[in-house]
Amino acid sequence: MEISAVKKTLAVALLAAVAPIGALWGQQFAICSSAPPLKAFLRGYLNTGQLAPDRTTRITAVSTKAETNTAEVDLVYVSGQRWCGSGGCTLLILQPQGSSFRVIGKVTIVQLPIRLLSSARNRYPNLGVPVRGGGIQPGYEAELSFDGKAYPENPSLPPAQHLTRIEGKEIIATTQNSILLYD
What we know:
There is one protein chain. The longest helix is centred in the N-terminal third of the chain and has 11 residues, at 36-46. By secondary structure, this protein is mainly beta. Helices cover 10% and strands 40% of the residues. The strands form two sheets. Strands 1, 2, 3, 4, 5, 6 and 12 form a seven-stranded antiparallel β-sheet that branches. The two termini are 24 Å apart. It has two helices and twelve strands, in the order αββαββββββββββ. It has one domain (10-180).
């Protein structure tokens, strides 16, 4: 894949240089050793505290930059022993800042697929995620909106809202092409 001369942050340009593994609406990219800023950020952010790194941690990432007229965000679906439970795994919503990132959402119990909705709030795209498992019956689709500071932390609680129908384009549908964070 050839990188165009379009101005992009270093991380997005590096991600775009990697072979795409899906392109339904957003482009899902495999993150590999050629994307050191994002991997370095994630290793630092996810490995806070006294615990040793979870060597089972896998990541699947996508950028919304080319897909919306909203502020750019990078979505990182984090899976592995420390990041998943019966209700789902962890989704990080990152705002690129130069060669680093700012976390504007850390959402737990996220099931796949993650959808990019056609709506936005406070200049940031709304996301749709299924909510099921962990005792939640029947399942439903939840809308995650940016409140000006962050996205909701839990799709099963307010301010996340129930959607009456499943909508939007799948941007992360599977972890089949995820990569190990600590390789």
